[in-house]
Design goal:
With about 130 residues, the protein is an alpha+beta fold. The protein has a domain at about 45-125: Alpha-Beta Plaits, CATH 3.30.70. The chain contains 4 helices and 4 strands. The longest helix is centred in the first third of the chain and has 19 residues, at about 1-20. The chain starts with a helix and ends in a 5-residue tail after the last strand.
Length: about 130
């Protein structure tokens, strides 16, 4: 009987002690999450792929590129169209793709209208994807 009483006393003391232990893991998790969010806010571009539809150089190349850009937007309204200038070329590129395989799916549709289109590595905005 004595052993049973002692066992009950120790058990109750142990439960009271365990009930008083508090863990503060959640504030650390929130802190790590906030650090992660702040780090990604600084990143605006990541490595990815786009489809280069065409490039222009020479006289009146900017006007030709802008008119072709409008035509591409009309033919492929679901794609983002970018006009960039890298001397001496105005380049028209479309899409934001994480992998070459994703770009390949749209490339086949674009090549029906623009047969010289091809996939190029580029910096893409991960927010536009």
């Amino acid at each position: 009987m004595k052993k049973l009483v002692l066992f009950v006393l120790f058990l109750s003391f142990g439960l009271v002690t365990l009930a008083q232990v508090q863990y503060s893991i959640e504030p650390k998790v929130k802190e790590i999450e906030n650090d992660y969010i702040k780090a990604w806010e600084k990143v605006s571009k990541i490595n990815g792929f786009r489809i280069q539809v065409m490039a222009f150089s020479g006289n009146n190349s900017r006007n030709r590129a802008e008119s072709e850009r409008a035509a591409i937007k009309e033919n492929f309204p679901y794609l983002s169209v970018y006009l960039t200038y890298n001397e001496p070329y105005f380049k028209i590129r479309v899409g934001n793709y994480y992998t070459r395989l994703d770009a390949y799916k749209d490339l086949k549709a674009i090549q029906k209208t623009y047969p010289n289109a091809y996939i190029v590595p580029d910096k893409i905005s991960y927010l536009d994807y």
